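Notebook B, p. 112. Complex prediction, attempt 2.
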Amino acid sequence: MSPRRVLAVTRRIVDLFRHDHRSLALVVVAPLVVTALLGWVVRGSESGTVRLLVVDADTGPAGAQLVAAIEGAAVGTSVEVVEGGSDPAAVDDRLADGDADVALVVPDDFSAALLAGQGPTLRLVTAGVDPAGEGGAAGAVVELLGRSLRTLLPDGVGSRLPNLERSTIYLPVDADALDAIAPVFLGYFAYFFVFILTGISFLRERLGGTLERLLATPVTRAEIVAGYSLGFGIFATLQVVLLTGFVLLHWEIPALGPIPAFVVGLDVPSAGSPILAFVLALALAVGAVSLGIFLSTFARTEFQILQFIPIVIVPQGLLGGIFWPIDRLPDLLRPIAQLLPLTYAVEGLRAVMIRGAGLDDPVVLRDLAILVAVALLFVALAARTIRREIA
Amino acid sequence: MAVVDSGPMSPVEPQPTPVVEAAGLTKRFGPIVAVDGAELTVPAGRIVGLLGPNGSGKTTLIRLLLGLVRPDTGRVTVLGRQVPDRSLLAEVGYMPQSDGIYHELTVWENIRFFGDLYGGLGRGRAREVLELVELDDRRHSLVADLSGGMRRRLSLACALVHRPRFLVLDEPTVGVDPALRATFWHHFRELAAGGTTILVSSHVMDEADRCDELVFMRSGRIIARGSGAELRASAGTADLEAAFLHFAGLGPDGRPVGDGDATAGRHPTGPGPA
């Protein structure tokens, strides 16, 4: 392999981007915009006020005490308590009308059950139209309820804490959803953009006759693939570096005239090495370069490259563990997920950025090894298709 | 301008090894026989014209000679080496029909790219070929902004940048205005005078007389070869277009002749519809 020829191919890719500012913007700006949007959507939804409708149907005194405790505990939090009277039948209407996000119903036997030593059951009601949003709101209420009960009840009566009748609601952990999603978005973006750009660039080589022209020079197929990987690797690097910075850091922009102060960057806490996260994302991106070259064999137009998005990109996004953990997938889908390279990038990035795992961690090591192996496999496949195209 | 229709080679000249020797070349694409048993010899230092209508197999034959496709049967040697041989390509220049240059890059970036692929020939040589095709003052323009004729010139420059011994030009003058066509042929003649062997394909017969030797192709077969004068004499026609029709077994109206006198060619196609 001649480094000069590899670098010639690489430089051609760099020149291409230098002239095509819009593609450069796609690589650099688009992922930042999408990640920023994701951040605002996730964080913005969580920081909204939760209006809690409290209905006290208790015939004894304990209910009123609980309500008072809740109102006290809610001061200074995102929960706003709305007085709901004592009629549980009114709850559904008021929720449906949008008067409140969550309703807490204290049952009529609340005091009696507490005195009898049984755990009474509190009812938590939401409208049931936005599971994710309501889950968050209910979570905030549950947390508030816990603090209220601790101020109300002396220590040692934990066994008689009220039950909550809302087992279907997913109780979120301490971390917000973004903390879990943002790090792995790095990998996904690198994959997505690199795949699309390589696929289209290489298709143009095939269609425009330049691939045939290249193969009439002493350049080898391996040199072409290596040059492409390096060329697009440079832009994947740029992208991953920018995104890593955007996810991990934050800058407060002060208010200026009519524009209110805002924060740039997501400030996701990361325990691990950004360099290791970057290496993982890059290994994934090199695989995406070769996958793009490989799949460009099966496309006749740029439009057909775009048709690979729902086939190649979206399933990896759904199954790769970004939004749903792999071990919670249905039995049939789990083996499929385990075949997708993105799965290992996601797992590795999470291990590094959330758990703070290093290269000595067996999971990270395995993930990195798999990503490198997949990249090499696709490089070999890509090199093969270059010959097949010509022969 | 150099001599046209140079006729047979002078007898005192020693006969060097031909640059191209192909025997029994056949290539099928599915049911289509693109090249059918082609025998071809390209003598060193000459300009050989490959003539035939669109779809007659000229481009496939060229790709077989360069090793870009593998023949179903037959073998090719170029510059004494068996094709395919990647190292051979460092001595061959190829100007494809579809320019084969990057429209998104500038003239200079293209010529530098191909120069690097052929082993880094330096800025000097790149400027030299750009000056030769009169594109030096446009070297910072994007190819996308160039005219069709300028793109053909850049494509030629990219094929010449490494000083090839054998130059393969696939329809170099398609879509080229008469003045540029004359310039191109001037370049070809000068290159040949400098020892470069040239194989040039065309489907326009009026270029044929500028070649030292001609190869007529039709339906994947080589139907005749020789100098322009030889072919005209052999066909008993006044011009090469009529000669081509004669060897193809076609009448002056381009329709197949039943039988009889149309078999004078060395490889008559034998149309023979009953």
